[in-house]
Each structure stands twice: as C-alpha cells, then as structure tokens.
Design brief:
By secondary structure, this protein is of the alpha/beta class. It has twelve helices and twelve strands. The chain folds into three domains: 46 residues, no CATH class; 124 residues, Rossmann fold (3-Layer(aba) Sandwich), CATH 3.40.50; 131 residues, Response regulator (Rossmann fold, 3-Layer(aba) Sandwich), CATH 3.40.50.2300. The model has no long low-confidence stretch (mean pLDDT 90).
Length: 339
C-alpha cells in the first residue's frame, strides 16, 4: 500500500512563496492578513493551494486563541428568506478566510442552546437572525461583550448592531401602490408582533394608511412567518366579517397562505381581492398569480452583516450602528384596481 505524502507545513509554504515563516502565518490568518501587502497574501495563498496546505484550526485556536469561525443562528433554514442571506454571510466571511457554523433553531434546539454550543466551540463572533424585540439572549450576549451582529432583526433597546431592511418604508410602498390603484379598504396580516419585523411592518402599514386618511379594514397577527399561519390569519379576517378589497401581508409566505384561504372561499385574486407580500422570496414570480411584493436585499443584508462583524472583530470604529437597507416594490399579477 503506497504511503501518503507528508502534509505540507508552514515552513514549506514560506519556502515556496519565498517569504519568512511569520509572514506566511500572517497571510493565512484572517485576523492578521491586513498587516501584509495584498500581493504577498496572494503569493502565500497560491503556495498553500499548490502544496494542498490545510490550516489545522484546532491547533491554531489553541495557539492563538482565534478559531477563524463565525456562528450563524437561523430561526428556520427552510424559510426561503434565509438561504440568500446565508450566502451573503458565507461569501463575505470566506473571502477573509473564515468558516461558517450554522444552527437551525426552529425545532430541536433553542437560540440560547445553539449560541452556548457555538461559544463553547470558540467561535469568534455570532450573526443572529433569531432575536425578538425583547430577547434575553441579546441582553446576555451584550452584557458578556460577545461579538454579535443581528441580521433581518433588531432588538428594542438597540443593544447590538444590526443589518435590516427599512420595514416602515416597505409597508409604505405597498400601501401607496394599492391606494394609487383605487383601494380604500385594505387589511393587514402581520407577522408575530414580538419580532421587530412584525411590529415595525404593522406600524409602517398603519402610518401609511393614516397618511392617506384611511384606517385598516382588518388586522390579524400570524403566529409565524409560514404559509399555514397566513392561511389561518386570512380565515380569521374572513370569519370576523372584515370587508376589504386588498391585503398587505408582512411576508410572502403569509401572502401565499392568504391567497389559498381567499380562493377556498371562492374569491379570485386579484379580481376580487388584491394581495401584496413582503420580501420577494425566490420563485414569487413563478406562482399564480405572480406575487406583487416588496423586495428586500437578502444577499446584501447577509453580506453587510458579515462585514460589520469582521470590522468589529478587528476593532474598527463605528461597528455598533444599525445598517438600514432600502426596499423596492415589485408589481406583478396579484394586485389590480378594485372591481
């Protein structure tokens, strides 16, 4: 049986790249490569690839106290919102040599348990998409001075930096669109009001209506951002006798559930009732009717959250702020002037 070739060492990389061993070490360390010129970093990385060099992260973590790993907490990895956010996170971190550890906290483990496990694995920071407005985990992580960035969520007291979409503006875009079409009786399906997205989008919906001198034709809070919760919320509106010609949902899955409930009662979308979603998840242009929705920049949100965390890890000033991204309205077939 042929013997395996011995693994390349840092000395081998330094010799191949014609640099000092310390320089090679810095070039391969995400936290220190900024100390080396980009040309030298490229040369060292090329040498590492040529020699099939792999960093021993466990040994490096013991030696330097840095793991080169970032933890990401997601509330439901099956929700179409999160894969593009995660892709933005991974690409930003991979470019700096960091590895991403992902936890889905929607079923078997809580966000607290996932965060503790990741911190026990010596992750250097966390990107959290699970936080509620008044979240004990957020307060604990803030008090522990952990390096954390929230994504697609914000906490009520602004304890941690976050990257979010402008939820108030998003609802304004949806309401203004429907009013311009002639709708005056507009209902709202909100997300869970314990989440910043649920509370802020509801507030934005009400503010936008008030600006037009209107009041909500009905409101139902949904227990989750899911198809089933949207279907249930729309049924509750209908069962309560709410009279509306349009529905603004706080999430695309809620909107799709609402369409299902409306169609089950013989109402046609958009001829009888217009429906507008929020997020522009993948394939919303392929459903029937294609969903009018508010597009948020999922990939950009994840990428910016990762960059904010990287800056925090390096002690760059100004990394405690909240980044708010601008949404846009995408008009498709689920909205039309009232009959």
């Amino acid at each position: 049986m042929p013997k395996r070739s011995p693994a390349a060492t840092l000395d081998d990389i330094a010799l191949h790249a014609q640099v000092h061993k310390t320089t090679a070490s810095r070039a391969l360390d995400p936290a220190r490569r900024h100390m080396i010129s980009p040309e030298v970093v490229r040369r060292v990385e090329a040498a590492a690839r040529a020699l099939n060099y792999r960093v021993n992260r466990a040994a490096s973590a013991l030696r330097t106290g840095r793991s080169g790993t970032v933890g990401v907490l997601l509330p439901d990895i099956t929700n179409p919102v999160f894969p593009p956010i995660l892709r933005g996170i991974e690409q930003a971190l991979a470019a700096e040599g960091f590895f991403v550890m992902v936890a889905d906290t929607g079923h078997e483990q809580s966000p607290d348990e996932a965060a503790d496990r990741m911190l026990a694995q010596r992750v250097e920071g966390l990107i959290v998409a699970t936080s509620s407005l008044r979240d004990p985990l957020v307060r604990r992580l803030s008090q522990d001075q952990a390096k954390v960035v929230l994504v697609n969520r914000r906490d009520e007291d602004g304890l941690l930096p976050s990257v979010v979409s402008d939820d108030i503006l998003g609802m304004k875009l949806a309401v203004d669109h429907l009013v311009a079409q002639g709708h005056r009786r507009i209902a709202h399906l909100s997300g869970p009001l314990g989440l910043s997205t649920g509370a802020l989008r509801k507030a934005g919906f009400e503010q936008a209506l008030a600006a037009h001198g209107l009041q909500a034709a009905g409101h139902a809070e949904c227990t989750a951002y899911s198809f089933e919760a949207g279907e249930d919320g729309a049924r509750r509106l209908l069962d309560a006798g709410a009279s509306f010609s349009a529905v603004v949902a706080a999430n695309d899955l809620l909107a799709l559930g609402a369409i299902q409930a409306l169609q089950a009662q013989g109402r046609c979308v958009p001829d009888d009732v217009s429906v507008v979603g929020h997020n522009d998840m993948p394939l919303m242009d392929r459903v029937f009717p294609a969903l009018t929705t508010v597009r948020i920049l999922h990939y950009e949100m994840g990428y910016r959250a990762a960059r904010l965390l990287l800056d925090s890890l390096r002690g760059v000033p100004g990394t405690t702020s909240t980044v708010v991204l601008r949404p846009e309205l995408v008009v498709r077939g689920s909205s039309a002037p009232p009959a």
